[in-house]
Amino acid sequence: MKREQKIAVIGLGYVGLPLAIEFGKKYQVLGFDINKKRIKNLLNGKDDTNEADLDGLKAATLLESDKGLCFSSDPADLNKYNVFIVTVPTPINQFKSPDLSYLLEASEMIGKSLKKDDIVIYESTVYPGCTEEDCVPVLEQFSGLTFNKDFFCGYSPERINPGDKVNTLTKIKKVTSGSTPEIAEIVDQLYASIIVAGTHKAPSIKVAEASKAIENAQRDVNISFVNELALIFDRIGIDTNDVIDAAATKWNFLKYKPGLVGGHCIGVDPYYLAYKAASLGYHAEVILSGRRVNDNMGMFVANKVVKLLIKKNHTINGSKVLILGITFKENCPDIRNSRVIDIYKELRQFGLTVDVYDPYAGKEQVKAEYNIELIETLPVQAKMEDRYQAIILAVSHKQFLTIDFDSLKNADTIIFDTKAALDRSIVDGRL
């Protein structure tokens, strides 16, 4: 199957846009997204995720006619392409079960443009078997074509690390796979043409899907262990980070730190693996126990802050609290599945007045996702009656590490550091 590869990347978020830019340097590429505002911004050289290499974006859109990147939100434009790469979100629903709605809608849309010998490659994180058992039937239904006869599939799990400007797309080894040996080789060579770090061709699509699920489940379980240690050491009255620093003097100790576990990967992917296990009659004990510990850390932080307020004789109802950060990690605008919301909700239930400040997060997105109105600036030398009774560092954005806390606090204000990032002399508690 030798032909010119024309690539359409479906979904231009944290994963899809960097991918479209890199492929656009060597192939004819369509960056497709149903969000018309997103397409308009990209056409104007603006990226709300801050993940794109804007110089690379400009260069990829100015190349000669046989390669380069263009953008569209019109599904009819997909008809011109023969390789479709799907990078849409795969979240969980309120019952912590996989939400495949975006994935299946994208598959339906592609199915309507699918032609003989076309290849559909999925990058969205799923459970093992999802591509062939859930997506392929939709492709067949809406294309009228037969899988592995008329069209083919591949799977290459995304490995984007939001906010990381060192370990970028081309510098992270890429797992690839295909629905036949020939297609697996084509998919592998396609990615190898842009990934400097190289590729790893998995023996099957299911293996590639499983590799993504377990790499994040492993981190989740490891973090849940140190989070549980934090709960234990809090009762003992010792600092968890002191214990970790001491233990880390042994060469084979893994230095994980306690904290909130959110985001689109670590806080979500384990549920996909557990869901698949349950469908096969197995209850995932370790994976789900780790999830329970990590999901409760926001509540622990909020309750700890309330106890510290009581210890300093503050009246709880009506006290003012400032939460610094709402994104799921430092120095990036990604608010997906941020567990800071758990701290916020728990404090509000205690009757506290809570302000949230985050210079990275989009005000409109936070309002739409969490119904929180971000404060736009921090008060400078606020009046004593307007100062906060508690300040929580929830995300260690670089700007927060140089804040003048004296302008925000009273003599008896509580400062709680969930990231162990601040000078210990100014904090009352930390994870």
Q: What does it look like?
A:
- The chain has 431 residues and is of the alpha/beta class.
- It has helices at residues 16-24, 36-43, 54-60, 101-111, 130-143, 181-192, 205-236, 240-247, 269-279, 285-295, 297-311, 340-349, 363-370, and strands at residues 6-10, 28-32, 68-72, 83-86, 119-122, 152-155, 174-176, 199-201, 320-324, 353-357, 388-393, 409-417, 429-430.
- It has 3 domains: 6-203, Rossmann fold (3-Layer(aba) Sandwich), CATH 3.40.50; 212-293, Orthogonal Bundle (N-(1-d-carboxylethyl)-l-norvaline Dehydrogenase, domain 2); 296-430, 3-Layer(aba) Sandwich (Rossmann fold), CATH 3.40.50.
- The strands form 3 sheets. The protein has a 6-stranded parallel β-sheet, with helices on both faces. It has a 5-stranded parallel β-sheet with strand order 10-9-11-12-13, with helices on one face.
- α7 (205-236) packs across α10 and α11 packs across α12.
- The radius of gyration is 24 Å and the shape is globular.
- The relative contact order is 0.08.
